[in-house]
Design goal:
- It is a single chain.
- The protein is mostly loops.
- Helices cover 4% and strands 0% of the residues.
- It contains one helix and no strands.
Amino acid sequence: MDADELLKRYAAGERDFHETNLKEADLREAFLIHINLACANLKEINLALADLSWANLIGANLENACLLMANLNGADFSKANLSQAKLTGADLIDANLKNANLGYTKMIGVKLIGANLSEANLMEANLIEACLDEANLENTNLSEVKLRGASLRKANLRGAFLCESNLQGADLREADLRGANFSGAFLCGANIESAKFDDATIFSGAIHFCIRQA
């Protein structure tokens, strides 16, 4: 199926396009709210500035997709492959990314407020200046992630793996860090006021001078 056919069928009221092959399709600025693209092949698709709020993208392949400035609020990306995707400036408020592969993605300034990223893979993702307030990052792989200047207020990071991550100047106030692994992480200037720790929280080898803590 090509982009024109999908847009025509969507305009006619169709919403179910699961398992559709839209590899390399150009759907920039498309309005596709509530669309069902579960298990679809969306590799290298262009969805820049598109509106896919509340879309079903469970298990979809979005490897190397362009989602710049897209509206993805409430979308379900659970078990989806978004490796190397470009998501800078996208809105993913309340999105479900449980078990998703977000390795090596570019997500600068992304809004992930209240999003579910539990057990997801974000290895080496770029989340500079991203907002993850109240996000669920339990047991998430955040190794070598760039979180410089990111906001993670009240985020759930229980059991998260943050080895070698860069959290310079990050806001972790009231975050749940119990069982999180910060081995070798860069925490200079991070604010961990009122954050929760326990004996299983690991800071071995972390650089945390100038850290702000109540």
